[in-house]
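Continuing the batch. This is chain 6 of the set; chains 1 through 5 are on the previous pages. Same settings as before, nothing changed between runs. Recording input and output for traceability.
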Amino acid sequence: MTDAAVRVDAWLWAVRVYKTRSAATTACRAGHVRVNGERAKAAQQVRVGDELRVRIHGFDRVLVVKQPISKRVGAAVAVEAVEDRTPPPPPREFAGVIAIRDRGAGRPTKRERREIDRLRGRDEDLHR
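Output for chain 6:
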């Protein structure tokens, strides 16, 4: 089923990025989905050529819409509907150090939370 434009949550579900449409909707509400650099609401329309950045498990996937589909399709058809431009993950040697707190050290202070977020790459949205 091809339309000129489809909802972003329906498209993400149709191309098997999320297991359920409600999971895709929740990700949009949480701000984990960006269409052409802007935060996307679940009902936002996507068209051929739109670039989506989807944060899954702490990593961004860069996807380009090649075919707007709104119904869940087989894996072979889903691959044809999306172009994955996600850069390969860095080698393990270059991966950042994971912040680990000592057991029983209590809750992190505000400064420590900011440092942890900076290490995990989550500070980009805080200052916009």
